[in-house]
Amino acid sequence: PDGSDVNGFPLDLGEKAKAGPALADFNGNGRDDIVLGTDDDHIYLIYDDGSTAPGFPFTANDKFQAAPSILDIGGEKIIFAGNNDDYLYAINSNGNVRYSVLTGDNVNTSPSFVNLNGSLYVMFGSRDDRVYAVDISGNSLPGWPIILDGNIEGGIVFSDLNGDSSLEITVISDAGTLY
Length: 179
Known about the structure:
The strands form 4 sheets. Strands 1-2-3-4 form a 4-stranded antiparallel sheet, with no helix packed on it. Strands 5-6-7-8 form a 4-stranded antiparallel sheet, with no helix packed on it. Helix content is 0%, strand content 40%. It is an all-beta fold. The radius of gyration is 17 Å and the shape is globular.
């Protein structure tokens, strides 16, 4: 609170990060840990003391240029991150891939989570003009992905916009269209 450095920080990874981190307590000590993607094809899980978690960094085949998202599934935290190698990765807290979803182009959106009819889904966009929805095991929601008129930009947001007790999904494409 006084502006002084926390023990173990600042931390120099020697890599560039384009997007912000995600925070969650992975080691159960009551303090948030840091998950960060880099332009050097890595996802880092950095504990609150500045040390890198065992099994990390996770390495993909291209850059991570959107902020990762974290979901607690049955007491285990899963990291979801889109990559320029056209995959969305679901990464376990030990650094192993839980599953991956291949798209038609770069995945430059941060994954969003939504509960639909009692089932949890991960939604994300790709530069292939599609919005994807997969369950927590990586299986596509029936009828998805959906095709829009441009590359999907930014995050996907859920809200009951019309007051009918059902969530609407809001997405923006690079064509300037709000869906």
